[in-house]
Structures are given as C-alpha cells and as structure tokens.
From TrEMBL:
Molecular-function GO term, any one: ATP binding
Protein name per UniProt: Methionine ABC transporter ATP-binding protein
Entries under InterPro entries matching the protein: AAA+_ATPase, ABC_transporter-like_ATP-bd, ABC_transporter_ATP-binding, P-loop_NTPase
Domain ABC transporter: 18-263
Keyword terms: Antibiotic resistance, ATP-binding, Nucleotide-binding, Transport
Lineage: Bacteria, Bacillati, Actinomycetota, Actinomycetes, Kitasatosporales
The keyword Nucleotide-binding is annotated on this UniProt entry: yes
Organism annotation: Streptomyces marincola
A biological process term (GO) from this entry: response to antibiotic
Subcellular location: Cell membrane
Annotated GO CC locations: plasma membrane
Amino acid sequence: MADGPDGVDAGAREDALIELDGVEKVFEVRRRAGVLRRTREEVRAVDGISFRVARGEMVGYIGPNGAGKSTTIKMLTGILTPSGGRLRVAGFDPARDRTRLARRIGVVFGQRTTLWWDLPLRDSYRLVRRMYRVPRERFEANLERCVDLLDLGALLDVPVRQLSLGQRMRGDIAAALLHDPDVLYLDEPTIGLDVISKAKVRTFLRDLNAELGTTVLLTTHDLTDIEQLCRRVMVIDHGRLMYDGALAGLHEVGESERTLVVDLERESPPIEVAGARTVRVEGPRQWLAFPAAASAAPLVARIAEGYPVADLSIREPDIEDVIARMYAMGSAGGGAAG
C-alpha cells in the first residue's frame, strides 16, 4: 500500500494508538486589574487539535514555548483533563483510566526526574518494578538491555543526585521503559545534553523503535532530534495544529534555511558558491545560508574545492524562525491535517 505524505503507510493509520478529535484545554487565569480588583480570563492552551498516531510511529511534536506541547502531553497521560473533544490512548480515556493506562505508557520530562533523588539508580529501578508489577525475568531482561544500550553499567550504584544531567536523562529513559510500554512520551529528552549524550539517546531510541515497535511522541526544540528520529512532524502554535507531514515539507512551507559556518585559513572576500548565499563575514569566518530541505554535502564539497577551509559547522534553524516564516507567508493552517 502506498505511503502517505508523511511517509507512513496509509493502512497503518487505521491502527491508531493515539487519537485526538477536537481536543481543547482551557485554563482560567486571574489577573490583577487594580489595587483590590482581579479579573478572570480564559486562556486556550490547546484549541481544537485533531490527529492520529499509528502503532510504531515516531512523531515529532514541535512548537515554540507556550505553544501547548506540554499541555497536550499531560492530557495524553491523564495528568490534565481536556476541556472538550475526544481523546484516546491505546483504547483508554487517559483522564478516566489513568491507572490502567499507566501500564501502557512511559513518560520522560526533560526538566524533571521520575527517579528517587537519594537512591542509587539500581534501587530506583527496583521500585519501578514493584510499582508496575513487572515479572522478575522480564524486568531483568529489560534492565540489562537498557543498561547496555544507554551505557549505564557504571552508574547503577550511584545516587541520582550525583549524576550529571546527561546521565540522569539516560537513567530516566531506562526507567520509563522497564515495563515495556506501548507508547513513550518524550518531552525535551535532550535538553542541556552534550553531543555524546545526545548521540547515545538518539541511537537508543532508533533501536527501540526498530526492534520493539514502540510508538514515540517527541517534543523538542532541537530539530536535529527530529531529523534523526522522526519521519513525521507536527507543528503546534497558540494551541492549534499548523502542520502535519514530513520534515522536508515543513522546511518547504516555511522556506527555512540552515547556516553553514565556514572558517577559512585566511581572510577572503565573501564566498560565492551555487546553492547558498553569504550573509555575514568576520575575518576568516563566513556564514552562508542555504535551504534547510537541501543536502549540505554538495555545498560543502564545492566550497572545499574552491576555498582554503580550516573548519566548518552547520547550524539548524530555530523552530520559532520556521513558524514565523510560515506566518509571514500566510501559510498558517495551510499544511495542517485534521
């Protein structure tokens, strides 16, 4: 069967593990209107979102701060109750069946830990096993796999408070997977991590999805996470779904650009090369902009052939810039899928 626009088999969409139909979340906020007066105001954090995530998909769920990403995740886990619409995860209503759903999902919040601060990782994992009532053999097999792939062996007897951010994040991901969840929610899982830690987390998630078919919904500000892990991306802003499709399509809709930073061996006039334009020059360093949907390899090859390159790096566009371009072009909602 033919793939859909996001690269997902059209038939697979019928096997939806996550379903949202017109989901809303409205908060009542009190604001000071004078010395003794306060007014009440409604804030729509999520405003009529609809989408499906098929079993085994890895989907990026992105947007600027305050867009409604974390609110959506909290409704999907049952932490928050929707103000309107229909929501199902693995056949459950998260708000009504939160306890039963907990056995089917795993959650990692990048800026919070689910581990016990004063306990070593090993003891935290034993408590997780008891909470989820995971059979011993299954628990030990899952733990061994996570420890091996996330490089946690030397950390099992270290108290969580003594772990670095990257070590704790890998520990949190392992804890979320010890009970074999069908769905894994990742809220900024690589925030603040160094390059090596990010690479380990991304490799692990790719292997997890390929080998076990775990469905992953990933929120992040790092578009490299999305590029390396997800075939499909959804963009939310002001509580509304603006785009649902392939990442390349998002870049095309927003005409976003990546930046190639080139360090030359000596100062030179602005680099002139097909497929890019020089936007800034400071001494031997030059910044070139090129379409985000294009491959950087041919561009790098052309520059290396014609200029004395000492070093170079690529900077990804900020999702805020991509969305701003979408708005500027009048594309808001143009690529969204209900």
